[in-house]
Amino acid sequence: MTILVTGGAGFIGSNFIFYWLDKHPEDKVICLDKLTYAGNLSTLRPVMDSPSFKFVKGDICDKKLVFELFKNERPEYVVNFAAESHVDRSITGPEVFLQTNYMGTATLLEACREFGVGRYHQVSTDEVYGDLPLDRPDLFFTEDSPLHTSSPYSASKAAADLLVQSYVRTFGAPATISRCSNNYGPYQFPEKFIPLMVINALNDEPLPVYGDGLNVRDWLFVEDHCRAIELILRGGRVGEIYNIGGHNEWRNIDVVRLVLQELNRPESLVQYVSDRKGHDRRYAIDPEKIRDELGWLPQTGFEGGLKRTLRWYLDNRPWWRDIVSGEYREYYQKMYGGR
Ligand code: NAD
Ligand code: DAU
Known about the structure:
Blueprint: E1 2-6, H1 11-23, E2 28-33, H2 45-48, E3 53-57, H3 63-73, E4 77-80, H4 87-92, H5 95-115, E5 119-125, H6 152-171, E6 175-180, E7 183-184, H7 193-202, E8 207-210, E9 216-218, E10 220-221, H8 222-235, E11 241-244, E12 249-251, H9 252-262, E13 270-273, H10 288-294, H11 302-315, H12 317-324, H13 328-336
Parallel strand pairs: 1-2, 1-4, 2-3, 4-5, 5-6, 6-11, 7-10, 8-13
Antiparallel strand pairs: 9-12
Helix pairs in contact: 1-8, 3-5, 5-6, 7-9
């Protein structure tokens, strides 16, 4: 069986490739990735020489390349992780988000229509639901919550979800969608909250907390997300959306405090900075559907998962040092300098 994984040189896609090859070494995994700033070929080093793995550098918006790949490889499953994924970057430069997240999805759907696949899975996000108020802890996102996007990133993801649903209805595409909460774990790009705080703490640099630090995110260990996607591919109903989350809500400032405590660094490193524009207040997933239909439950608790993640960043300094010493420096200066 051949599975095409797009965006597999990024954070969740690479973890998914490792997960899949570990569980199904008999399958062939093809990774299609453009290697944007967020894609890192060195991440895939552990599988690069495996006869079960093939890497193709390319853009999911490139119809010629994508059609050629489908024609030659005839993937049975397609899982689309490829995206521009950072909210802050979507605020400073929205266009590429629309191009990759929407037009890229459109190109993949067209290829599936032309060549036929067993399953197409769209990796979406809970951000399509907008946010929840802090004073209503009884509210959660369900699959029926309205789309209510806040950033160009979430709008581009919601638009792609609607396109996927239109292909199911109009062309009978065998597609599913998942909307997961915030992931953390190994290989997450340093621009994201947890790795950014970990790396800054290790470097004894200020930890920039947006606004009042009271925004809430629902954290899930990346392997739990990967397992949920496999369950959806195998047993999820075509045309359905599945929310993924583990009822693990944390205020940002409390995550920062935990990181500092684990790394034995002082709280004086915390620096409150001006807020993100349109900053979503709280995300919280109701995972009842995936639990009841597919038996999915998270297996990794937050404190254990965070310890594993910190250990990974401590043991893999060359991986992130290479990133933070390059063009990332410019990005950091632009985003945080004088903020
Ligand atoms: P990431 O930014 O770490 O990785 C994205 C990958 O996609 C990179 O390897 C990049 O090179 C590749 N890519 C970007 N544009 C491409 C293009 N045009 N063609 C081919 N490849 C391209 O992202 P991530 O955090 O791993 O997120 C993966 C997916 O999961 C995204 O679709 C995101 O919306 C979704 N998601 C992320 C989270 C999270 O917490 N990180 C939570 C829920 C959903
Ligand atoms: O919920 C799923 C989404 O989670 C995914 O769809 C996105 O791809 C992923 O990036 C993530 O979005 P967030 O905006 O929630 O994640 P981020 O890591 O950017 O920020 C998490 C929280 O931390 C958010 O409230 C903003 C805050 N933050 C972030 C950074 C980078 C800070 O306070 N300081 C920072 O420097």
